Amino acid sequence: PRQFHSVRGPLRDDTGAVVGSFGISRDVTERRRAENQIRKLSRAVEQSPVSIVITDAEGRIEYVNPRFSELTGFAAAEVLGQNPRLFKSGRHPVEFYAELWSTIKSGHDWHGILENRRKNGDIFSEQTVISPVKDHSGKVTHFIAIKEDITVRLQLEEQLRQSQKMDAIGRLAGGVAHDFNNLLTIIQLEASTLATNPGLDADATEGVRQITAATQRATGLTRQL
After folding, report:
1. Residue 4 confidence (pLDDT) above 90
2. Dihedral of the CA atoms 217, 221, 224, 225 (nearest 10)?
3. Burial bucket for residue 47 (CB in 10 Å: 0-12, 13-18, 19+)
4. Which of 120, 123, 202, 225 has its CB 3.0 to 4.6 Å from that of 177, i.e. a possible disulfide?
5. Which residues pair with 30 in a beta bridge?
């Protein structure tokens, strides 16, 4: 099946009488297919769960999808025509952005994490892919950035790392305490045996008592450890 855009009407003679009809038709099948494809792509971008930003070759923003506004707090009208430096957090050095622009302007994709700032000032992290868009001659005409908010994920990963560190420290402390307690047990047993020796003078007896008291305090510290 093909689709046509048609115009039809009466054909009149010099007196105005209808003597026939005429029809002009143009095949618009491919145009309709292209329009449908564009509509599908448009809906996909508009409903995307990730933030999408399109800029011209100089970095001026030409399009942002609804997810971008939800994420940053900026309405589309506030950022159109602006440069993405509007979202800079100050956490990346100048060299970081220089490398980014050098990569995409040379026609290559850039992958990385951007620390950006929302409209309310909050800092958030975005897993980002920026790709150049080229015309038929290969010239870069636009850039498209696809960005996913990974702030919560990074926070959870950091919490997990801290938990793992504490777990490792706990295991190390437990192992040290166990070995140390074994040594204390030997000292306590030998001190107890020595205390029963009738040949000890007063100074030696006092020394054994202090050893016993010290090992008891050390045992308490080991339990705390």
Report:
1. yes
2. -160
3. exposed
4. 225
5. none
